[in-house]
Amino acid sequence: MSTSDTIEDGEVQELLKTTGTDLRQYSAQIEKEFKEVENRSIEDYIAQSQNIANLHNQIGTTSNILERMEAGLMEIQCALNNISTEITTLQKKSVSMSVQLTNRQSIRAQLSQFIEDMAVPEEMIQTIMEVPVTEKEFLTHLMELNHKLNLMKELNFKESKSSQDISEVLFKLKIKAMSKLRVYCMEQIYKFRKPMTNYQIPQNAMLKFKFFFEFILSNERGVAQDICNEYIDTMGKIYYSYFKSYSTRLAALKFEEAVSKDDLMGLEDTVTRSIFSKTSSLKNKSTVFSIGDRGDVLNQQLEAPIIVPHAQQKTRYPYESLFRSEQYALVDNACREYLFVTEFFIVRGPQAQELFNQIMGKTMTMLIVSCCLTWNEEFPFYKLLY
């Protein structure tokens, strides 16, 4: 026994002695009270026994219900597992079928396109053989024919046997189309040679069917070169003839008075001259030595319409106006020609420049020489500055 227990027992004994209570009697009383409490508890338990029995029965019933629910849920879980397995299987089958369908559609589309490209319809043959080249229907079938010819070239390069069935038909159609296109292009070029022809009209007609030359260039470069050479020869002569005639007619519109090295500003006509000097004098020195409105050529008149010689026969112009008109006509025609060449003949860069020089080179050389000669005649004193 510990010291604290000894102290507590001593305190209890001291308390009992002080109160005069007998320990045995007090113990019996406590035991009696315990018995009474136990009896009352038993009576309460007996009184609630029916409720406890009912509760026990309810718990048993609930347990049975829960067991049945558990069994049902287990069955549902098994069914769900089976459904999940079936869904997974169906999903895999669906993905597989989708891939197969996509592959079949892809093959079908490619195969259908290939069959369509390889087939030569009767309508195409009839159109290429009989329809005029200017008809829209001919252009449509010509593009289709060009596509088939390019495809046949690829198949022949791969040594495909499928191209052998249509190669002969396509070759004959190509020859026929090439013949008709060459005749058409040559006819358009020959139209430039007619007198008083506005060459922009045939050029616009050729640009409308510029695919013709693309087809010829893609399939027969020799024919394309012949057409190009014919165009160069024709247009080179036309531009040369036009600008030579235009320059000559413009020269007839300049002032009749021309300054020479013997004419001086401020010199009076009454001044005595030596026997070696010329006796002729300018009728109107103001038209030669005065600036007048010549400066307008560089300002207001720089982009004015060109001078038409046959419409201005009674009008006279200073050399600057005639020079501007000639150069403006040259720039206008050269720019239009360069744009036509690059678009119709499908050339760019150095090739376009070379082709343009072949057409306009002779004309530009002639104009440069003419300008130099005219400059020396109109402004002889210019040499004195050097």
Helix share bin: over 70%
What is the succession of H and E elements?
HHHHHHHHHHHH
Backbone CA Rg: 58 Å
| Multimer state | single chain
Number of strands: 0
Query: What is the 3D shape?
Result: elongated
Sheet/helix structural class = mainly alpha
Question: Mean pLDDT, as a whole number?
Answer: 80
Largest sheet: none
Uncertain segments are: 266-286
Please work out how many helical segments DSSP would assign.
12
Strand percent estimate = under 5%
Characteristics:
386 residues; mainly alpha; 72% helix; elongated
Mind explaining what this structure looks like?
Helices cover 72% and strands 0% of the residues. The chain has 386 residues and is mainly alpha-helical. 11% of the residues are buried.
What would a concise description of this structure say?
Helix content is 72%, strand content 0%. The protein is mainly α. The N and C termini lie far apart (146 Å).
Give the topology.
Elements: H1 3-19, H2 23-47, H3 49-118, H4 122-130, H5 136-157, H6 167-190, H7 200-208, H8 211-219, H9 221-251, H10 286-289, H11 319-344, H12 349-378
Helix pairs in contact: 5-6, 5-8, 6-8, 6-9, 8-9, 9-12, 11-12
Subcellular location: Golgi apparatus, trans-Golgi network
Keywords: Golgi apparatus, Protein transport, Transport
Pfam family, one: Vps52_C
